[in-house]
Amino acid sequence: MTEEKKEIKPSIYGLTRDELIDWVIEHGSKKFRANQIWDWLYKKRVQSFEEMTNLSKEFVAELEDNFCLNPLKQRIVQESADGTIKYLFELPDGMLIETVLMRQHYGLSVCVTTQVGCNIGCTFCASGLIKKQRDLNNGEITAQIMLVQKYLDDRKEGDRVSHVVVMGIGEPFDNYNNVIKFLRTINDDNGLAIGARHITVSTSGLAHKIREFANEGIQVNLAVSLHAPNNNLRSSIMRINRSFSLEKLFDAIEYYIETTNRRVTFEYIMLNEVNDSPENAQELADLTKKIRKLSYINLIPYNPVSEHDQYSRSTKERVDAFYDVLKKNGVNCVVRQEHGTDIDAACGQLRSNTMKRDRQKAVAGAAQ
Ligand code: SAH
Ligand code: SF4
Predict the structure, then answer these.
(1) Domain ranges in the chain with CATH number 3.20.20.70
(2) Is-contact 110 101, C-beta < 8 A?
(3) Are 314 and 276 in contact (CB under 8 A)?
(4) Which of 210, 267, 350 to mutate to test the pocket of ligand 1 (most atoms within 8 A of CB)?
(5) Cα–Cα distance between 80 and 89 in angstroms, integer?
(6) Is 26 a catalytic residue?
C-alpha cells in the first residue's frame, strides 16, 4: 500500500490583502470580512482561526480547510549579550532557515531568509555553502516576522518590530515575486504597517531585477553587495559578476536612482588583504563618483566562516586607512557595527552549524 503524502496547507500569511479580499468574495462573503481577518492576523496577531470571534463557525471552518496559520516551527532560539536573538525555524518540509532580531538604536530590526540555501555561491559566505534547495514562498517569509513579533508579544514589554532587512539566507531577487508580495504585506497600513523606508532589500547584483524593482513603485530601500571595486576582483569572489559586470550593475543602479529618486546603499565586506588596500578604496571612490550624492557605503566587518578560512577580518589599521581614502574623496560611508558576535553570527551560520551538529549526531547515532 502506498502511503498517502500528508497535505501541507498553504499559510494564510501568503495572501496579500487584495488576494485575501478576492478569496473571501469567491467564498461567498464580503470585502469587510477580509479586512476583519487581516486585522486578526496582523494587528491582534491571533494564533488560531478559532480566535477570530467575529466570524461565523462555518467561515472559520472554511479558513481551516484551506489554510494553516503559521507554517514554521521554532527549533532553536539563541540570545546574545547585546540583545541580538537568532531563531532557527523548521519549514513544513523539514528544511531549516534562520531569522535574526537585532536591537538598533533606532528600533528593532529583523533579518529574514528568502531561500533555503543560495545558488549565487559567493566565496566568503556561509549561506552559499548549501546550494539552493528551494525558494521560500511569501507566507513563509512573512511568518518569520510574525513569529519574532509573537516572541516579543509574549514578553509583554510592548516591543514592536520596526525595521526589516532582507539580508538572511538567499538572494531575494532570485525569488522576486515572493519577496515583492512579502514587502507589500508587511508594509500594508492596515496590518503590521512597517514603513517602506524602514525596509531594506539586499541583492548581490541581479541587474535586470534591480530595473524591475525600480518600477515597482514601492519606497523600499535597496542595498547592493559590492565587495570589490573592479571586475577582476569582484568576479573572483562573486561569481555573479561574470554574468552582471560592474558596468551592467551600475547602469541598472543609475536607472534605479533616476526612476525612484532614492539613495542606494553599497555593502562592502572588509576582507583582509583581499579587497581592503588604499588603492582599492580609491577605485571604490572612483567607481561610485557619478552617484556620489545618492549613494552610501557600509564597510562591514567580516564574520569568519570556518569553511572559508582563506578569508579573515581586515585589521583595524587597514579599515582606518581604507575609510580615510573614502572620506578624502567625499564618500558617504560608515564602518558598520556587528551584532551577536557571541552566537553563531554570520548569515547562514546558525543553520549550517546546526546541520553540522545534526549530521554529527546522526553519524554518532549510526555508529552506536
Ligand atoms: N544575497 C543577498 C542578501 C543576503 S546576504 C546579498 O548577497 O546581498 C546579506 C549580506 O551579508 C551581503 O552583503 C553579504 O555579502 C553579507 N555577508 C555574507 N557573508 C558574510 C560574512 N561571512 N560576514 C559578513 N557579511 C557577510
Ligand atoms: Fe548568496 Fe548573498 Fe551569500 Fe552571495 S552573499 S552566496 S548572494 S546569500
Answers:
(1) 71-203, 221-337
(2) yes
(3) yes
(4) 267
(5) 18
(6) no
What are the pLDDT digits (tens) for 186-199? 999 999 999 999 99
Alpha helices in the chain (DSSP H): 17-26, 31-42, 57-66, 138-155, 176-187, 207-214, 231-237, 240-243, 246-260, 278-287, 316-328, 349-367
Determine contact, residues 134/360, Cβ cutoff 8 Å.
no
CB-side neighbour CA atoms (13 Å) of 340: 24
DSSP line for 217-255: ----EEEEE---SSHHHHHHH-THHHHS-HHHHHHHHHH
Write down the catalytic residue from 98, 111, 140, 267: 98
Residues linked to residue 77 through DSSP beta bridges, in sequence order: 87
319, three cell numbers: 579599515
How many whole angstroms separate alpha carbon 142 and alpha carbon 15? 10
Q: Which residue pairs from 61-64 have beta carbons closer than 8 angstroms and sit at least 24 positions apart in sequence?
A: 62/27, 63/12, 63/37
How many Å lie between the centroid of ligand 1 and the Cα of residue 5? Answer: 36
Q: 12-66: which CATH architecture?
A: Orthogonal Bundle (1.10)
| pLDDT the model gives residue 7 | 76
- Residue-level pLDDT at 357: 58
Lining ligand 1 with CB less than 6 A are 124-126, 167, 171, 202-204, 225, 267, 269, 300, 302-303, 305, 346-347
71-203: what CATH class? alpha beta
Q: What is the CATH number of domain 221-337?
A: 3.20.20.70
Residue 352 among known ligand-binding residues: no
Do 249 and 205 contact (CB within 8 A), yes or no? Answer: yes
Nearest ligand for residue 265 CA: 1
Ligand lying closest to the C-alpha of residue 224: 1
Read off the pLDDT of residues 277-333 as tens digits, 9 standing for 90 and up.
Answer: 999 999 999 999 999 999 999 999 999 888 889 999 999 999 999 999 999 999 999
- Residue 145 C-alpha cell reads as 516576522
pLDDT digits (tens, 9 = 90+) for 57-113: 999 999 999 999 999 999 999 999 888 999 999 999 999 999 999 999 999 999 999
CA-nearest residue for atom 14, ligand 1, is 225
CATH 1.10.150.530 residue window(s) in the chain: 12-66
Grid cell listed for 307 = 569553511
Whether 263 and 253 have beta carbons less than 8 Å apart is answered as no
